[in-house]
Write a structure and sequence with these properties.
Elements (H helix, E strand, L loop, with lengths): L2 E7 L13 H7 L2 H7 L3 E7 L17 H16 L4 E6 L4 H15 L3 E7 L20 H5 L20 E6 L4 H8 L4 E4 H7 L2 H13 L3 E8 L21 H14 L2 E7 L10 H13 L14
Parallel strand pairs: 1-2, 1-3, 3-8, 4-5, 4-7, 5-6, 7-8
Helix pairs in contact: 3-4, 8-9, 9-10
Length: 305
């Protein structure tokens, strides 16, 4: 059984549309802690983090709250790097991954372990402050943690992540500039067209085999609500049709659980203001439970009516 630390990250500045600030408490109300305790895990909730003062820098004028995002990034790196056990970062928009992934990469380096990331998202989030047209920094974490240029003003990375150690699954909304740069990289990319042809099991099994072969290793999973099809997970401001189904998402989580490789988790982009009586929050808690050992055969029937 795992020692789980729940970390509330009410970060709501990585984009223009607000609402994700309520995400951490929505996970608490949906029963994340008692669900994990019911599976035999030890759970400690350290409450919600608070960032320091906004970072002062000569930011590009079109960026949305860059000083606040940079402050959150520094706070998350400092808080996450020293956490033992399995931390779950409860967001909050996906800009939190600038700090959470950087923190987990640094923790792995401190322990002399290899580090991999599974990115479950409709988007690649590979923009930089120089390439993003919207100015929304929740679209930049993969670029930041892999050491791409353009992040002046942000905390220098303690341990950049090798792009070849990142697998992205569920992609279906990727800007041309991101696609061009990623296609020439070593990142493991699986859009929903390829998933339609192969399913999730084959590419995930291949990735997990590569992770296991790396020896002493940490695997971080970053789960965005928009990885899921909006018909089952409406509470996100970046809905993209054609996402993972209920069973596909649980299969991914169950395979991750069976691998025994996952050492940290992001739950991001939940906007409770867009939810239907907590439906999406409960699904994200259920998926976390599958990751932490619960199987679909154990799952009680639940009405969403």
């Amino acid at each position: 059984m795992a020692e789980v630390t729940l970390i509330g990250v009410p970060l709501d500045c990585g984009k223009s549309r607000s609402g994700c600030i309520m995400g951490p408490d929505a996970y608490r109300v949906a029963g994340l802690a008692p669900t994990l305790e019911g599976l035999g895990h030890s759970v400690r909730d350290i409450g919600n983090l608070t960032p320091g003062a906004d970072v002062q820098h000569d930011w590009r004028p079109h960026l949305v709250a860059p000083g606040r995002v940079a402050a959150w990034t520094e706070t998350l790196i400092d808080a996450g790097r020293g956490i033992d056990g399995l931390p779950i970062f409860m967001g909050g928009d996906h800009a939190l991954a600038l700090g959470s992934v950087a923190a987990m990469a640094a923790r792995a380096a401190d322990r002399g372990r290899a580090f991999f990331v599974l990115w479950l998202d409709a988007h690649t989030d590979f923009h930089t402050p120089a390439t993003t047209e919207s100015g929304n920094l929740h679209g930049t974490p993969v670029a930041y943690v892999t050491g791409q240029d353009g992040f002046d003003g942000f905390t220098p990375l303690p341990a950049p992540v090798f792009l070849g150690n990142i697998s992205m699954m569920g992609l279906r909304s990727v800007d041309p500039s991101e696609r061009t740069r990623l296609e020439s990289s070593q990142a493991d990319l699986h859009d929903m067209r390829s998933i339609d042809e192969t399913g999730f099991a084959a590419p995930l099994r291949s990735f997990l085999s590569r992770v296991a072969d790396a020896g002493d290793v940490d695997l971080h999973v970053s789960l965005d609500v928009d990885f899921l099809d909006p018909s089952i997970a409406p509470a996100v401001g970046t809905t993209v049709p054609g996402g993972a189904t209920f069973r596909e998402a649980h299969l991914v989580m169950e395979m991750l659980s069976e691998s025994g490789l996952v050492t940290s988790l992001d739950l991001v982009e939940l906007n409770p203001a867009l939810d239907e009586r907590g439906r999406t929050a409960r699904l994200m808690v259920d998926l976390t439970a599958s990751l932490m050992g619960k199987r679909i055969f154990d799952r009680p029937t639940r009405s969403f009516q």
